[in-house]
Every structure is written in structure tokens, then in C-alpha cells.
Amino acid sequence: MSLSTHSLSVTFGTASDPPVLDGVDFELEAGRFDMIVGANGAGKSTLLRSMAGLLIPQRGKVSLDGRDLRQLPLAERARHIGFLPQEVSPAFTYSVAEAVALGARVAGLGHWFDHGLAGAAARAVDQALDQVDALALRDRRLDELSGGERRRVLIASVLAQQPRYLLLDEPAAMLDLQHQSELFGLLHHLAGEGLGVCCVTHDWNLAVGFADRLTVLHQSNILASGPPAELLTAEILNAVFGDHFALLQHPDGRPVVVPK
Asked: H-type helices in 37-192, by residue range?
């Protein structure tokens, strides 16, 4: 069971423009926590959006459990794939519970009644908010929240969808250190329960601390992929960023990257 790309190539603009992704083969397996890193413009968000079915590739395809994603109905994709982009600007001033309930509705867990949420939808909303330490925000409105609080609520809305594959673009953006650690601990736990989880991140140290597999994008393709601690090397850092970072050793033995 996997969500995978096959020789995926994506170009923006005209056919003569250089590809953002060029022949990328990537597989997210159920039960694994993957993180994707790379410099700005490497194609990280484009890869995630392609896996969510939001971009049409020039070449190659995306497969969901062996089936061509483009041939599946949108409703079926939404039941299996949860996606949170890097930037989300809600168009309406939903309450927190209403915003998270949108994910529950995608999962087919019920609908709004005149007196509010009920049944499975209400339970899914409360569970998702509790998972991201945001249950106390349930009755607040999105436009009243801080950036970090809103981010946690948006992550909860994707969790309430109860997908089998979870795609998150910079989910730790605007979160404080405690909530970053708690979020990635939760994602690692969800992968251990059988979910396929894939995050784009700029924080290589978080990836080494929590991910099962790290994939480094560079110059439109995959430079390296494997166990995070094995990929955080001076050679790979120099290839991606030049000679601007140094590696230290954490007390538990894993490598840590710091600016020089």
C-alpha cells in the first residue's frame, strides 16, 4: 500500500522552461513517516501538491495503491489523501469546530444540524483538536487566533478527515518549540499506527529526530533518500547549500546541523 510518483516531471510556464521536477520516483508507504528537505525552489512543495492530485504533470504519473490518481473520482481521493499546504487563508470566519468539521465531512462522518455538530463528526472534531493540543480553542473563531494556534487548528482539520496518507507542507511553521516537538511526535505515532505521513520541512534536525526516512531534493530530482541520520552528512549539505553549515553530535549520538 503506497502513494507514489513514477518518472514525474512538472514544468510551470512553457514547455521550454526548465522543469521544477524532472523524472522523480518517490514512494510513501503506509506506516512510515517521511520528510522531504532541500533548498528553496528544489520542488518540495510541487512534489507534495502532485501527490495530492493538485497538479497535472507533463510526464509520469501518481499512483494510489497502484491505481492512477487521475482516474480516481475527487471524492475518493479526498477520503484517502489529506493535504495541508504551506499557506492557508480561510475565506470565511469559521469557528474552530466548524473549520475542523470540514475535514470530518470529507471523511463522510456526518453534517451540520441546526443545533450544531453531532455524532461521529463531533467526536472526530474533538479527537483531532485534542491531538494537536487545541481542544480549548474549540469555540473560538479562526480570525481571533494567533498564527501558531491557527496552524494547529488547520492540522486538526486534516486529521479529522481520517485519511490513509497525510501530506503536510511545513506543518511546524509558526509553532513554538514545544508544539513542534509534540506535533512531530504525534505524526511519528500516527505512522506507527499505519498512516503514511509525508512532511516538507526546512528543519533538517527535526527530520533526523523524528522521521523514518529522509529525502533530499536538489536540482529538480532526488539527490539522496534513506535513514535520516545517514543522510545528514557534510557532503550532502555542501551539495545543497555550499560550505555554510557544520555538523555536531547530539548527546544521543545523532548528527545536528548548525550554521558556521
From this structure: 44-51, 74-80, 96-106, 119-131, 147-159, 177-192
